[in-house]
Amino acid sequence: MSRLQANFLLLLAGAIWGAGFIAQSTAMATLGPIWFIGLRFAVATLVAVPFALVESRRATAPVRSADRIGFIVTGVALFAAAAFQQVGLLTTSVTNSGFLTGLYVVFTPILTVFVLRKRAHWIIWPAALTATAGIFLLSGGAFSALTTGDVLTIVCALLWSIQMICVGVFAGRSGRPLALSLVQFAVCAVVGCAVAAIVEPISLAAIRGALPEILYSGLFSSGLAFICQNVAQRYTTAPQAAIFLSSEALFAAFFGVFLLGETIPAAGYAGCAIIFVAMLATELVPELSKPKDRSAAA
């Protein structure tokens, strides 16, 4: 898979997450946030099973024990990020949540440098800041004073960065992105349902009320989108992936217009353009700055 194809998959994941943000918000009208996470990832686990089985049959070597542990760590990071975001939505606005979650485009390259000791391509830094500015404008260009939900969402953005770095490390090292998807989904499902059983009430009526959101999130937002992320990150870096995945803010705005009748102000359209420029720069600049093959030219 080429880097261009990988980035297209990441863009597809961003589009699916953008539409899923609507489901995420409306589901909590009848269902608790942790139950929603547990049930959506239970559905996602079922989605990942056949893909992981096919991958396992084609694999030339079993998954190493160290990578299995890494898969579980990735799942814990994913559950924590999803939980902080979902609970944060209870006490913050959609505008604040969309902007603050997008901070992972800044956190990811910073963590990559300090945790993995890897230098990102120079374009990642201005592109990350540019994408963050675009998300801010897309969110309306302003947000209210920080609430508890805002703080939880900032923590969520940091955890998303950790999850992206884990995916980049363990999907690439193991060569088994679909196995990673299955394990991280199962971890989220088990931990989510276990925690929810302790802290949140549940009823069949609540599940039925949120069933369309659970199915969409489980099949697409959790299942398909995270599988796209895990496969694509074998062929690109975590900082670059973060910039393309930040397109979820752009797609969330568009789906809000087409599905909910919301409007985008002029600043929002400027934000869309800025995010697009950041993604384009991330794709084109590394290619254009490669040294030319003189032997081929001769």
Key terms:
globular, 298 residues, mainly alpha
Write a structural description:
Helix content is 80%, strand content 0%. Helix 3 packs antiparallel against helix 7, helix 5 crosses helix 7 (148-174) and helix 6 (124-138) packs parallel to helix 11. The chain has helices spanning 3-27, 33-58, 65-88, 94-101, 104-116, 124-138, 148-174, 177-199, 204-209, 211-232, 238-245, 247-260, 266-288, 294-297. The protein contains 14 helices and no strands. It has one domain. The radius of gyration is 19 Å and the shape is globular. The longest helix is centred in the middle third of the chain and has 27 residues, at 148-174. Mean pLDDT is 83; it is low at 293-298. The two termini are 29 Å apart. It is mostly helical.
Helix and strand element order: HHHHHHHHHHHHHH
Strand content: under 5%
* Number of extended strands: 0
Radius of gyration: 19 Å
Shape: globular
The count of helical stretches stands at 14
Report the major sheet. Answer: none
- Low-pLDDT runs of 5+ residues are 293-298
Number of domains: 1
Derived from helix and strand composition plus strand pairing, the structural class reads: mainly alpha
Protein name: EamA-like transporter family protein
Keywords: Cell membrane, Membrane, Transmembrane, Transmembrane helix
Main location: membrane
Membrane topology: Multi-pass membrane protein
